[in-house]
Specification:
Elements: E1 10-16, E2 21-28, E3 31-34, H1 43-47, H2 52-58, E4 63-66, H3 67-72, E5 82-83, E6 91-96, H4 100-112, H5 119-130, H6 142-153, H7 159-165, E7 170-175, E8 186-189, E9 196-197, E10 200-206, E11 212-220, E12 222-223, H8 224-229, H9 234-238, E13 244-252, H10 259-263, E14 266-272, E15 278-284, H11 292-299, E16 310-313, E17 338-343, E18 347-355, H12 366-375
Parallel strand pairs: 6-16, 8-18
Antiparallel strand pairs: 1-2, 1-5, 1-13, 2-3, 3-4, 6-7, 9-12, 10-11, 10-16, 11-13, 14-15, 14-17, 17-18
Helix pairs in contact: 4-5, 4-7
Amino acid sequence: MNSLIPDGCLVGRVWNSAAQGPSVVTVRDGQFVDITNRSASTVRDICEMDDPDAYVRGADGPVLGSVEQILAATVGDSNQTHLLAPCDLQAVKACGVTFANSMVERVIEEQAAGDPTKAEGIRQRVQAVIGDSLSNIRAGSEEAAQIKKALIAEGMWSQYLEVGIGPDAEVFSKAQTLSSVGTGADVGLHPISSWNNPEPEVVLTVSSKGRIVGATLGNDVNLRDVEGRSALLLGKAKDNNASCAIGPLIRLFDDSYTLDDVRSAELDLRVEGTDGFVMDGASSMSQISRDPADLVAQTIGRHHQYPDGLLLFLGTLFAPTQDRDVPGEGFTHKIGDVVTISTPALGALANTVRLSTECAEWTFGVSHLMRNLAARDLL
């Protein structure tokens, strides 16, 4: 299998140039197979089934091209069949501050009020208070409450402490339905931001009944200066044109891949700049402060329903402190950066950084999808 596409039972979406619309696909013998039909015209339909992986393994359809051909196609060119984000009608939600160690960076952002020149001094002050006490901490525990109390005593109270180590998780809307981009696409930064970074994350696929049916990769693009000015700017910091990348495909749970594999996943991150800059990072799911199943339960249930299911970003351990240009100011993106997030079980998600105002406009919404499927006699 191509290193960008993992083994396992896979489902996703491509732009089908012949149909001039999206098709649901799986991968067999190194080829993308179109499994779209009237009973499952969307990925959402498959995720709602009692046994999604069995359905995908048995579904028939025409071959659209080899993995190599479709990965090499120009994303956004309607005359070439290319990968899309693997979700369609699902809501796209995200959890923040789910790793206690990365919580420190959120506190720093807030204390610095979005000014990267102040970050290093605040970082040293916080570390002097808590040391390595965040190792293996579990949110909502008595130990977490004591650390929170110590930080507040030092004048470092933050709402990030509450969601980072308190009983309730932060869950927010990351992107609008159908607005996510897939691997190979440009990923967008709002032009007002000058301090930002990628966030490599596992993204769970959850049915309307709250059942976790699979996982994929995501880049929850983060504008540190915007959110750092005020947590009330979270929507502006997180949901912009092309600011949510998901892919390459959803790996459905089966005997070879389960939620326990998600819990132990090790994600690699590489940023390669046109200026020759290279940054390598990682995010270890074993260090998450909240179990993935708990995050799902806090998102969907009797308190909140999602009739088309959802995709849920689980948060990241990665918070870059490596200086790129100015000593003490840490990392920020430059236009043209190529960001690759990977792990063997889920493949690789690669995107090029642009301004949101320069990325392709999002024009294909739910109404367009419904009309396209109806015209193809798939509804």
